[in-house]
């Protein structure tokens, strides 16, 4: 292979190095956006694949340049050999940069995934606690309702017992009154005696009222 072939292939290597630097710059920008995401975007994946493909091409091109240096004998100068070595060093630097950025992105996403998992566990635990609190509250309210119903049942039963007792007493008084009336009808002269007692009581009341009235008049006129 001639020196012109070496120059053409090296020109391709230089062009790919510029493309690699541009793509690495774009790829590194995902480090800031990865802090708010848990998965890589399609654009990030596409750039990473392009970088892998270009690095592989550059490795192949450096291999071609190395073969030219071995087959051309004295046609290649020391400077060109140094150029090949320099291309190889830049390729290794770009590979390390790609690996470093990829590792940082993955580490950041792992932290985000862990944080998301912790937050999810906390949220699930909180929901479970809320559900348990709600169940406990419902159970407590149910017990209160049962206690209120039991109290109402006892009060209602007491009212029913009181009603029955009053009905029994009324029946007892009614029977007693009937017996008294029956006795009054069966004893001769008892009604006349009671009537005389009532008449005398009325007369005594009238006399007492008259005496009181006279005393009051005397108080005014004396």
Question: Which descriptors would you attach to this protein?
Answer:
222 residues; rod-shaped; 5 helices; 91% helix; single chain; mainly alpha
SS-based class: mainly alpha
Distance between the termini: 167 Å
Number of distinct beta strands: 0
Inertia-based shape: rod-shaped
Strand content: under 5%
Q: Identify low-pLDDT runs.
A: none
Q: How many helices does DSSP assign?
A: 5
What is the makeup of the main sheet?
A: none
* Rg estimate, integer Å: 59 Å
What is the typical, i.e. mean, pLDDT?
A: 80
Secondary structure: helix percent: over 70%
Q: What is the helix/strand order?
A: HHHHH
Family: Belongs to the GOSR1 family.
Protein name: Golgi SNAP receptor complex member 1
Subcellular location: Golgi apparatus membrane
Function: Involved in transport from the ER to the Golgi apparatus as well as in intra-Golgi transport. It belongs to a super-family of proteins called t-SNAREs or soluble NSF (N-ethylmaleimide-sensitive factor) attachment protein receptor.
């Amino acid at each position: 292979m001639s020196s012109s072939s070496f120059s053409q292939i090296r020109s391709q290597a230089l062009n790919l190095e510029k493309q690699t630097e541009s793509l690495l710059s774009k790829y590194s920008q995902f480090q800031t956006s990865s802090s708010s995401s848990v998965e890589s975007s399609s654009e990030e994946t596409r750039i990473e694949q392009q970088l892998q493909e270009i690095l592989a091409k550059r490795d192949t091109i450096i291999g071609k340049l190395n073969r030219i240096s071995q087959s051309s004998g004295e046609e290649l100068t020391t400077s060109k050999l140094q150029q090949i070595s320099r291309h190889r060093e830049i390729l290794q630097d770009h590979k390390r940069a790609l690996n470093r950025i990829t590792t940082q992105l993955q580490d950041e996403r792992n932290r985000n995934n862990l944080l998301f998992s912790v937050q999810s566990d906390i949220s699930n635990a909180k929901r479970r606690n809320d559900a348990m609190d709600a169940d406990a509250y419902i159970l407590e309210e149910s017990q209160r309702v049962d206690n209120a119903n039991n109290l109402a049942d006892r009060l209602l039963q007491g009212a029913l017992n009181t009603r029955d007792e009053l009905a029994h007493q009324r029946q007892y008084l009614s029977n007693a009154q009937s017996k008294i009336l029956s006795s009054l009808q069966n004893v001769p002269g008892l009604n006349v005696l009671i009537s005389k007692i009532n008449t005398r009581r009325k007369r005594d009341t009238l006399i007492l009222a008259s005496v009181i009235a006279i005393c009051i008049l005397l108080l005014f006129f004396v």
